[in-house]
Every structure is written in C-alpha cells, then in structure tokens.
C-alpha cells in the first residue's frame, strides 16, 4: 500500500515516527493533564554520570581545559569599584573533537543509536550540533544525515550556517539544505520514516545527560584550583539544553549554591521563521529568538517531552548585544591569545559585565567556547550584515537595534547586561502549558509539576492561574 506523504498525513504520524526514531515511549511518564515524571524519565532512559564519562572518553570528548583569563580579569578590575571584579575562568570547549560542547550531546546519542542497532543517525540543526553528530557518527561507523535551514527565498545563506554545512560534509555526512520555513520538520520526519535512522534530537534525555559532564568538570576543576566551588557560571542560552545539562552536572558535583546565569544575544523584534529577518541576524544560535520561546514552551521541540527544562535551574537571565559579543571575541583573541567563534562568546560578553558586579574574591566561570573558521569570523559576519542593509559602526551598544544596526562598543566599560524578568518567563510558560494541553482544571500533580518546572512554588502557580 502506498504511504500518504502529504504534509497533513506526515504530521498526523509524527508521534509514531518519533517513537520509532528515538525508542522512548514518552506516554508512560505522563502523570496528569500537563505533568510528567521528569526525573524518572532522565533516570530510566539516560545513563549514569560514570557511564557517560566512559562513553565520551571512547571518542575523545570532554575533559577540556579550564583556563583562567588573567588579562581579562585585570581589565574587569580596572573598570570596577574598589574590591570588585571577580576572577574569570573559561571552559575551552573548542577542544572537543568537533569544536564545541555539542560533542558531549552527540557522543551519548550516537553511542545509544549504535547500541540499539540503528544503521544511521539524523539531526535537524543549523548549529554546531550537526557537525558534532557527523563527527561522532564517523567515529562509530554510522551513516549520518544533517538537515539545515540555510537560505532565504533569494538563495542567500548566512556565512556561519554555510560553513557549518561544509563542516558536516567534511565528516562524511549527507547535508540536506533548505530555505527558511515550515518544511524543515516535514522533511525531517520524512527522512526518519524512510531511512529508519535514529533521531539525534537535541532534546532527548541522552543529549541532555551528555552535557552533565560539563557542569561536573567545571565544579571539579574549580575546586582543585580554588578549594571551593564557583560562585556563578554563565551559560549561553538557546534551546535550554546547555543550561539544563550544565546545571544538573553542577548539582551532581555538590554545588547547589553556585548561581546559574543564562545569557543570550538580544534579537528582540526579529522573527526567526521570517524570510525577511532570517539573514538580518549575525548569530544563528545563543539568541533570544530561541532562548525565550524554548524557556516559555520547551515542549515545542522535536520530541514529545523535552528533557531541557531551563526554568528549573536558572537563577538569572541576561541579554547582551551582537556588538558586545563581537568586541569580546576580539578581546579574547588579543588579550588571552584564544581565537574562538563569536556565538560561543555570548556568555563571555555577559560575564565581562557581571564580573564587575561581583567581589574580587568571587569566582565566575564562562561555560563554553566554540571553534572558529572563515564563516564564523567577525569580518565575514559583519560584511554579510552590511550586505543585508544592516548598519555597522562603533558607539554605545545601548543604541543597538537588531536587524537595523550593530554597534561595536567604543570602550569595554560600555559592555553591560540587561536583565530579563524571570517571573515573566515563568508566567508565560504556565499559560502556554495550559493552552497547549487544553487543560482547564489541573490536578495536584499538575500544580506540583508546574512549580518544579518553573523553579517556584504552588502558590506562585496558583497566582498565575487565578490571573494574579
């Protein structure tokens, strides 16, 4: 019998396709109208921390260096009031095989695919994750397909995404490149169904558990050097997995007091699925276009229940500008001798401002770097921005306007963070949860789940439900 491959028919089969492509029956964790047993899902479908370390060691992932940024710390203190200016460390995740922390996620996902007998893996991503999956698949001898949104309707592609496509191909992956729009998920589902390959989603328990080693290593390395845990860790926030996994790793290392700070590039006003806006941003990840929607509705992911739940762990959420990140990318290279990709330096830009708020005896860790290359380089990014009609100049980054102008700070003292109202995110999440599950009357288990999932309490959840 011929299979109906119309858009509507494929979407109607998505839960069945995902169940076969991930091997998880998510329905068995459902406990209420909106609630599910998150920790049980992580425990039963993931691996222990020790097992993940062993899996990652098999392909050279993890155990990346923690570097003290002595010159940047000195600059921080010059710009801070007396007694202020935290010591800044950076976790050099560019040292992973594919050049980013995403190798940690991919290592566990691809290992699991091989263990379960899948012949190949598929990932839908325009970010570093595609390269990480392709790299790990090459090491384990599995086929790999990466599906990317690359072009606008004029056929123009952002240089960073184009470069990532080449990187995936270099690892032997087949790369399916699409224009921006709704066809990505449809094509992804079709490929999963036709090939029978494993879905290397960013949001499975395997992928999130893979990042826990990053938080665990940060805690161990800081304790070895300083004799105490970090005061705070700044984490680039997009889909929520980076923050969730790192925070869980810190907790497993016995660091409940370490503050978890999410940081994103501010792209307010730009719509990620818009053909006009698609190429008017210089960052393909780590921005509010992912950070806000995935915090306020994590289950928008390509699996029924997203294992990335950032609001459970986030103590503070800040934004920086594109110009701030380009400035810090050059500062990292010229003051510390580390040339790393701009998107990975989002958390560094935020940390540079936050360290000035902290006391000298406190420790701030920047949680990642990423590899760089021709397409990621600031020159390529800013040249492309000008070609799209975006003004690029020096000045005060407070004048930055996403999609209109990028302001490179005239002085490092101009780099600031802007706090995002966490309670606003929490309220939006609860409302989205009720709307998407069409849950009119919640049970006690649902209230408890929403409190845990927002890092609040049942009284807060009730206040939102009652319209405050």
Automatic annotation (TrEMBL):
Positions of the Tryptophan synthase beta chain-like PALP domain:
59-366
Recorded GO molecular functions are: acyltransferase activity
EC annotation from Swiss-Prot or TrEMBL:
2.3.1.263
- Which example biological process does GO assign this protein? alpha-amino acid metabolic process
**Residues forming coiled coils:** none
Q: Which leading EC class covers this enzyme?
A: transferase
Instruction: Please give the PANTHER family that the UniProt record associates with this protein.
Output: CYSTATHIONINE BETA-SYNTHASE (PTHR10314)
- What this protein is called in its record is 2-amino-4-ketopentanoate thiolase beta subunit
User: What is the source species?
Assistant: Koleobacter methoxysyntrophicus
């Amino acid at each position: 019998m011929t299979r109906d491959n119309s858009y509507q028919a494929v979407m109607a089969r998505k839960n069945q396709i995902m169940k076969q492509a991930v091997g998880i029956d998510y329905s068995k964790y459902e406990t209420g109208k909106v609630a599910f047993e998150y920790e049980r899902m992580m425990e039963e479908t993931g691996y222990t921390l020790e097992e993940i370390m062993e899996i990652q060691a098999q392909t050279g992932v993890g155990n990346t260096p923690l570097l003290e940024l002595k010159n940047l710390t000195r600059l921080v203190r010059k710009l801070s009031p007396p007694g202020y200016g935290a010591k800044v460390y950076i976790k050099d995740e560019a040292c992973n095989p594919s050049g980013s922390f995403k190798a940690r996620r991919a290592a566990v996902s691809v290992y699991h695919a091989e263990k379960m007998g899948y012949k190949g893996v598929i990932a839908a991503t325009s970010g570093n994750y595609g390269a990480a999956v392709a790299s790990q698949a090459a090491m384990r001898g599995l086929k790999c397909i990466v599906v990317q949104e690359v072009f606008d309707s004029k056929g123009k592609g952002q240089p960073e995404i184009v470069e990532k496509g080449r990187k995936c191909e270099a690892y032997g992956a087949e790369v399916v490149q699409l224009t921006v729009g709704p066809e990505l998920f449809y094509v992804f589902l079709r490929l999963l169904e036709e090939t029978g390959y494993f879905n290397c989603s960013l949001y499975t328990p395997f992928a999130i558990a893979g990042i826990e080693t990053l938080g665990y290593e940060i805690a161990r390395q800081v304790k070895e050097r300083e004799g105490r845990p970090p005061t705070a860790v700044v984490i680039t926030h997009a889909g929520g997995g980076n923050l969730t996994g790192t925070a869980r790793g810190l907790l497993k290392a016995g660091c409940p007091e370490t503050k978890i700070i999410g940081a994103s590039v501010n792209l307010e006003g730009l719509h990620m699925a818009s053909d006009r806006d698609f190429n008017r941003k210089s960052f393909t990840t780590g921005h509010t276009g992912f950070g806000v929607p995935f915090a306020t509705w994590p289950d928008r992911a390509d699996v029924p229940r997203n294992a990335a739940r950032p609001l459970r762990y986030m103590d503070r959420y800040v934004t920086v500008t594109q110009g701030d990140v380009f400035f810090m990318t050059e500062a990292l290279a010229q003051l510390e001798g580390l040339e790393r990709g701009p998107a990975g330096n989002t958390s560094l830009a935020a940390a540079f401002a936050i360290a000035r708020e902290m006391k000298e005896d406190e420790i701030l860790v920047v949680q990642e770097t990423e590899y760089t290359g021709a397409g990621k380089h600031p020159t390529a990014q800013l040249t492309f921005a000008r070609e799209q009609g975006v003004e690029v100049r020096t000045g005060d980054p407070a004048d930055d306007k996403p999609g209109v102008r990028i302001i490179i700070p005239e002085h490092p003292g101009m780099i600031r963070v802007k706090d995002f109202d966490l309670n606003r995110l929490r309220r939006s999440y609860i409302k989205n949860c009720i709307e998407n599950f069409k849950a009119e009357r919640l049970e006690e288990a649902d209230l408890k789940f929403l409190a845990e999932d927002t890092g609040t309490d049942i009284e807060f959840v009730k206040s939102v439900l009652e319209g405050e």
